[in-house]
Design goal:
- By secondary structure, the protein is an alpha/beta fold.
- It has two domains: 117 residues, NAD(P)-binding Rossmann-like Domain (Rossmann fold, 3-Layer(aba) Sandwich), CATH 3.40.50.720; 183 residues, 3-Layer(aba) Sandwich (Rossmann fold).
- The strands form two sheets. Strands 8-7-6-9-10-11-12 form a seven-stranded parallel β-sheet, covered by helices on one side. The chain has a five-stranded parallel β-sheet with strand order 2-1-3-4-5, sandwiched between helices.
- Helix 1 runs parallel beside helix 12 and helix 5 packs across helix 7.
- It starts with 6 loop residues before the first strand and ends in a 9-residue tail after the last helix.
- Bound molecules: (2R)-2,3-dihydroxypropanoic acid.
- (2R)-2,3-dihydroxypropanoic acid (DGY) binds next to loops.
Length: 324
């Protein structure tokens, strides 16, 4: 390493405690203005950084990694999803990549439940009635949503977050179904009374609610395509807290607008921060601005993970959360 303390360049503002600890341990360049860095700024950063700490808002492309100086040895992502980093290029160019798993599981599962409840119980529509002073009093047939008890929840991606969604959903009386590359252990299946579907296409028509919890990669781009959306019941709901690119957003907006699908709760979008304009007009779409991990606990936990990974890198130890 070229310096006694590695130069750590952080692309966005991080929680205060994280920034303080980073600055006390390493030579740290923070982004005080929190202005997202474009390709030029990222290229300049990797010219001098030993460690880059990006977030989901940065596109760390092959070109950027290839333009890095030889001192760049670690990309310590602040976030669990790392689809915005060309991990294959990083591996080829001998730059390690780490992420922050585990610490945002509860927060993200909570947001999935929030969306599930909001969309099935029409909570946003109701809140807008109050906000616009249109509440004319209780009415026996007005604002009816659907209850969760006894309905079938299909979880796509039964990793940490998928399991956490399943555990919460059990408390609401939902029946758990899942599609995953591999089956979870018999103990977990038993605990959750979960049904495994080898064929996603076979699961879809049976579900009342679909929760997307898988990582985004080339294999999951538009996994929920127009064709797969058409397999869902017209009374079904879709909840996405993973990545927008997993769902064909135009097809989803069309399905919601035409009544081919009952509703959707989305925390993530295909072209963030842009949101499909049609989605913005639909009462059956509950939209949140990528808030899955936005608790103080999760974000400071993510900071601790980043620091632990950089610490291990400096000490020459195995990286705890290495993904490439
Ligand atoms: C994550 O950690 O993947 C969140 O979506 C923010 O990047």
């Amino acid at each position: 390493m070229s310096r006694p303390k590695p130069l750590v360049i952080v692309t966005r503002r991080l929680p205060e405690a994280t920034e303080r600890e980073l600055a006390s341990l390493f030579e740290t360049r923070l982004n005080r203005s929190d202005t997202p860095m474009d390709a030029g700024a990222l290229t300049a950063a990797v010219h001098s950084a030993d460690v880059l700490v990006p977030t989901v808002t940065d596109r760390i492309t092959r070109e950027i990694i290839a333009a890095a100086g030889p001192q760049l040895r670690l990309i310590a992502n602040f976030g669990v999803g790392f689809n915005h980093i060309d991990a294959a290029a990083a591996a080829e160019l001998d730059v390690a990549v780490t992420n922050t798993p585990g610490v945002l599981t509860d927060a993200t599962a909570d947001i999935a439940m929030t969306l599930m409840l909001m969309v099935t119980r029409r909570a946003l529509e109701g809140a807008k009635v109050i906000e616009s002073a249109r509440f004319a009093g209780w009415c026996p047939t007005w604002m009816m949503g659907v209850g969760l008890r006894g309905r079938k929840l299909g979880i796509i991606g039964m990793g940490r977050i998928g399991e956490a969604v399943a555990r919460r959903s059990r408390a609401f009386g939902l029946e758990i179904h899942y599609s995953n590359r591999k089956r979870v252990t018999p103990a977990v299946e038993q605990e959750l009374e979960a049904t495994y579907w080898f064929e996603l296409d076979a699961m879809l028509p049976e579900m009342d609610i679909l929760s997307i919890n898988c990582p985004y990669n080339t294999a999951t781009w538009h996994l929920i395509s127009a064709e797969r959306l058409s397999r869902l019941k017209p009374t079904a709901y879709l909840v996405n807290t993973a990545r927008g690119e997993i769902v064909d957003e135009t097809a989803l907006a069309d399905a919601l607008a035409s009544g081919r699908l009952a509703g959707a709760g989305l925390d993530v979008f295909e072209r963030e921060p842009q949101v499909h304009p049609k989605l913005l007009t639909l009462p059956n779409a509950v939209l949140l601005p990528h808030m899955g991990s936005s608790t103080i606990e999760a974000r400071t936990g993510m900071g601790k993970k980043v620091i632990a990974n950089i610490g291990a890198f400096v000490a020459g130890e195995p990286l705890p959360d290495r993904v490439a």
